């Protein structure tokens, strides 16, 4: 197989993985809905390029964390369908990573958006 076809196949597989995560994970749908809201809010307030960069990084961080969490959960489910304390701990740690990413995203959103709202409130 030529290198171009292998690369194209890699991208196709990656997009299938993203689509599978969106289809199967409720939390990814929530992350997408919140992201759409934040993007609309950013457009509405007219974010600067620097603020957009922070918003995009925060959104990406959460999406990556949720996707990796989903992969870890699926691997764990293949290893054992019975309750296993070690597997539960691995899943909890992965979920904790998503929570950390979401908290960081909220903190970034506060830093980015609160000045816009305070400037509106005191004008």
Task: Describe, in plain words, how this protein is organized in 3D.
The protein is an all-alpha fold and 123 residues long. Helices cover 89% and strands 0% of the residues. It has four helices and no strands. The chain starts with a helix and ends with a helix.
What's a quick, concise take on this entry?
The protein is mainly α and 123 residues long.
Feature tags:
mainly alpha; Helix Hairpins; 0% strand; 4 helices; 89% helix; 123 residues
Mean pLDDT: 94
And the CATH topology? Helix Hairpins
Q: What order do the helices and strands follow?
A: HHHH
| Secondary structure tally: strands | 0
Q: Structural class, please?
A: mainly alpha
3D shape = flat
Strand content: under 5%
Poorly predicted residue ranges: none
Biggest pleated sheet:
none
For the record, give the distance between the C-alpha atoms at the N and C termini, rounded to a whole number. Answer: 63 Å
Number of helices: 4
At the first level of CATH, what is the class?
A: Mainly Alpha
The count of domains is 1
